[in-house]
Amino acid sequence: MKDLDTRMISAHDAQDRIALIKLYAEAADRANALDASCFYLTHAYIFALEAGAPEAKALHARLKAEGREA
Amino acid sequence: MTDTVTDLSNVRASVENANGLPNAHYIDPVVFNEEKQALIFSQWAGLAVAADVPEPGDAVPMEFLGMPLLLLRDKDGDVRVFQNICRHRGMILVEEPRKIEGAIRCPYHSWCYSTKGDLVATPHVGGPGHNTHDAIKRNDLGLIEVRSHIWRDVVWINVSGDAPAFKDAMADVMQRWREFELPLYHGGHDSRFTLEVQTNWKLAVENYCESYHLPWVHPGLNSYSKLEDHYNIEKPGEYSGQGTMVYRQLTNENGETFADFADVGSKWNEQAEYIAVYPNVLLGTHRDHAFAIILEPKGPETTVEHIHLYYAVSNSDEGLRMRNTQLWKTVFEEDIFVVEGMQKGRHADQFDGGRFSPVMDSPTHCFHDWVASKVETHRAKARAAE
Fold first, then answer.
1. B285, B238, B175, B275: which is closest to B44 by C-alpha?
2. Which fold has domain B53-151?
3. ipTM of the predicted structure?
4. Helix axis angle, A34-51 relative to A55-65, nearest 10°?
5. Which residues contact B139 (CB under 8 A, 6 or more apart)?
6. CATH of B24-44+170-377, one of 3.90.380.10, 3.60.20.10, 3.30.70.20, 1.10.3720.10
7. Per the CB < 8 Å rule, is B124 touching A36?
């Protein structure tokens, strides 16, 4: 996870939204608790939404399935 | 009510007897703010041009009389104007002109909006990882849209939201120029320029709408466009300006001219018109090109003039365009010392607003009459609300 944190910080510094979508989705998959997973999924979703990236649809569906998104 | 109440009784007298607007209408910050509401926010005012946002997703933040606005072309190609703030904490959403690829994300807590202004995401609003909450109704919390309408590529806005429908408010001027209801093509980067002028915006209107000054301030026009070739245009309460009967097309070294607007009729062969559409848009039209000037009031004594030139076709000749831009830039720059000189003159406390030539100044008087009527209406409403 430490390596992932480092890559996230780098992606934030570079404002690399495509990388941020992937890294937060990876963090969500690695998280042990549902709330933590949905926290990371939310970030991946928001960056995808902002970028107009195709991943937004699937990320939204995952959050909605957990009752976390409208 | 404002602290400064000017006496406008003589402004609305007939042009033979009227005085111009009192000095305070040009230099007093209190009157400036009063006019902001009475003359601009309550009317259809020019904000920008649609050519500023040529592609879907193009977004340009702008400040209009202190109000942060966002000019945006949505995903379907419609131009919209929003207040440039998040409905959550009022944070400015877009700081620099840029392309919105997907959604507009607030940089503070990442609430997201579609390019149509819909609130589409509220991350963690119900706690970490919980992105909804019953109290936050997304349908009620879209971006605040400012009423807007595009005509002659100008983005007109009615901030107060209660002006008559644009097509009703502008029916007369639209009818006057009905032959020119044709596609306008912005000339591009070589066909736009701005001039920052140390003057109140109204003096720019007043100078634009009369031809009296032309032989003195623009002597270069005398060779082909004499004072007697001009006529006044006046529509009380709406617009005023001037026209010429001897417009001569620009040519290049090969004798080529710009393409004409199709089928506008022989009336316009040598006729051209220059109209100040109240409050702040100055329009010009000719058989082969048009322009729009949006006056951006920056303060009581500073105005930015945004000038855009348009053609009948998308592929007008670049050399001719550049020559035409330079021609108009020279004319408008020749006007700067006049509007700045009149502005300085408004600090002479014995000035009574001046007197008008009943023959030559009636377009200016028409504008003053409109200003006075709108300010009086605004003051009456304020008194009624007390």
1. B238
2. Rieske Iron-sulfur Protein (2.102.10)
3. 0.96
4. 150
5. B119
6. 3.90.380.10
7. no
- Considering only CB atoms, B129 lies closest to which of A38, A48, A51, namely A38
DSSP SS3 for B8: coil
What's the CA gap between B1 and B134, in Å, rounded? Answer: 41
Which residue ranges make up each domain of chain B? 24-44+170-377, 53-151
Per-residue pLDDT of chain A (70 residues; tens, 9 = 90+): 679 999 999 999 999 999 999 999 999 999 999 999 999 999 999 999 999 999 999 999 999 999 999 9
Determine, for residues A50 and B112 on separate chains, whether the beta-carbon distance falls below 8 Å: yes
Can you tell me the distance from the alpha carbon of B259 to that of A11, in angstroms, rounded to the nearest whole number?
52
Q: What is the CA radius of gyration of chain A?
A: 11
B279 preceded by cis ω (within 30°)?
yes
pLDDT, one tens digit per residue, over B115-153 is: 999 999 999 999 999 999 999 999 999 999 999 999 999
- Chain-chain contact of B103 with A43 (C-beta, under 8 angstroms): no
Q: What's the pLDDT tens digit per position in B328-375?
A: 999 999 999 999 999 999 999 999 999 999 999 999 999 999 999 999
Q: Which residues between 103 and 122 in chain B have a beta carbon less than 8 angstroms from any beta carbon of chain A? A: 103-105, 110, 112, 120-121
Decide: B367 and B206 in contact? Cβ < 8 Å.
yes
**What residues of B are in contact with residue A69 (Cβ under 8 Å)?**
121, 131-132
Q: How far is A8 from chain B (nearest CA, A)?
A: 17
- Does B131 sit within 8 Å of A52, measured CB to CB? no
> For the packed helices B201-208 and B336-345, what is the interaxial angle rounded to 10 degrees?
130
- Whether residue B70 contacts residue B82, with contact meaning beta carbons closer than 8 Å, is answered with yes
* Residue B123 forms contact with A (CB below 8 Å): yes
CB B169 within 8 A of CB B159: no
